[in-house]
Structures are given as C-alpha cells and as structure tokens.
Amino acid sequence: MGLPVYRIVIKEKDLTQMERQIWSDKFVPASFTDGNGTQPVQIRYRGGHTREYPKRSYEIQTSRLTYHFNAEHDDPSLLRNALSFHFFNEIGVPAPSTQHCVLQINGVIQGVYLRIEAVNQTFFRVRKIPVRSIIYAVNDHATFELKDMNTEKPKSSLFSGYSLMKGTGEDRLRLTGFIRNIHAKRGIALQRYLNGRLYMDNYLKWLSGAVLTGNYDGFRQNYTIFEYKKRRAYGFLPWDYEGTWGRNCYGKAVASDLVKLRGDNRLTAKVMAYRAYRKQYKQRLEHILATSFTSQKLMPVVKKMHKQIEEDIYRDPKYKWPLSMFASEPEVIQAYIEDRRNVIRRELHNL
Fold first, then answer.
1. Fold of the 5-117 domain
2. Which domain of life is it from (predicted)?
C-alpha cells in the first residue's frame, strides 16, 4: 500500500505567477483534496535556497490549519525531519507531527513529500500549552549575541534573526531585553534571572535533542521560542532538522562529533557556566542515552518509515539521489546513532 496522495489544483495564471516570482511569500488560491474531500486553500512557496530546486516546498493554509509540505530534496532518506520530531516528542519536547505523502499539482506527480504541522497558536492549543508569544529563529543571526558574528559590529537590532509569529511589540522588547540581560548580569544574579526567565527543564531537553541528533544549524536558527503565559518563561522547540543523523543540510555525510556537547550559541554558553545546570544537563543526557537514543529504540521507527515510503520513492520523478543511497540510508542512520552515543559518553566525562 502506497502513501496517501494529496491533490492540489491551481489556476494556470496563478501557477505562472508563482513560477515567475519564486521568492514571493504571497499566497495564491487553490483547491486541495485529501481523504476528507476537497476544500479551498491558499498556497505559496516556502524555504530559502530550496526555492530554486526543481522540487520545491510549499505552505498551505486551510480555513483552520496550516501545513508545510517539505520536499526534503537534500535528504537522501527523506526521513531525517520526521525522525527528529519523533525523537523530540519522545524526550518530552513538543515537536510538529509529520506524515509522508505524495503531492500532485494540476494532475502532475511532484514526488514524495513530508507534511509537517505548523508551529502556531493552534499547535500549542492542541497540546494545551498556553503561550503569550511565538518567535521563529529564521536565520543565523539568532545567536543571542550582541554583535553580528560576521562583522563583529553591534547588531542594529537584537531582534535580528527572529520573526514574531504571535505577540505584540512588547513581546519583541521582552526578548531583546532578555538577550541584553544575559550579557549584563553576572554570577548569582544571572543564575536567578535564567532560572526565572528560562524554562530550564525544557531548555535542557531541547539542547539534548539538538546535540544528539547533530543539528549543526539548530542553535543559531531552526528553532522556535515560545513564552509560557503563566510561567512567563521561555521554552524552545525544534524546526527544520533535515541536516541531522549523520548528514548536513545538503545531504553530505559528516562526522558524528561535528556538534559539540554544549551546543553553539551565547545562551547555551551562559547556562553551561553554572555547575548546577551542567549537572542537570548531564543527568538528562544520561537518561536519554539509556532510554530513547539507542538503536534498539530508534531503528524500528527508521525501518518502518523507510518501508512506508520506499515504493513511492522509486516512482518519485524528482528524487535527486541514486536509489542505492536511499536503500542504504537506514544503515547510515544506525551507524550515526552508535557513533554519536560513543562520542557523547566520552564528552560527558569532561562536562
């Protein structure tokens, strides 16, 4: 049995407009058919450099929900995002639900896609997490630094690298104030501030997930900040984990020790300066290594996903990798898991 097929119909004039303006974020009307029938939707391209690929990604808005249909063009397995979000949910970090599918536009098969739940107000409402604000880290300026890492000059705005998805100008100011304060405060004052403004249990779980999956870009972008309404503390969750499990975001094989144990942004450096937080982090990692980040736990999930999409991958007209690569990807992921476990266990001794 093959994957579910989602059918999109776009008027030719609107499709031509999208093709001529691939960098536009403007939505055009379309109709969308799934197992529940046909409904009107709005559609646009999404992503950065991937918009120039022959297999592009889309954002689709229905009257109630928003979905991202990711081409996963640079991942020879088409599994890494789905596996990563599954893993984050397993370790207690809220992450988008996913479903592999076949996408058809105006009767033409586009290939295998990953439908990803959007991280928006509905995402948190479904999970019964009251939030005050939702902020995306959209590029590599989202480092919690005061200076631009490329020019070493002060940033024109401390909100550089972020996009406010829910909230007001006050919420923008609260985040920039948070960034400013983690640089200004020292010692016990900073520890108390971090303890009050950062939901530490969530942060250390999120950090563990990013480090274990090996997302090199996951500390400077590709994450979402959300502020708990009652707690008034920031939580974190993952986004765009295609470059993980032994490959980078372009599909190139990378060493299992590429990502360091403490991650790579200023906020993590501030947190890891305190022995109490390092102890919590070490305990968290040891628990995950013993329970969730094992071949025994993860490989059945990998093999099931791989089997589910195999038939349609071989018919995907835009799959860019040799089919032999797809066939061997479960072994690549398993080798990464085993190697990464060894690397983390060695580095934990020096934490």
1. Phosphorylase Kinase; domain 1 (3.30.200)
2. Bacteria
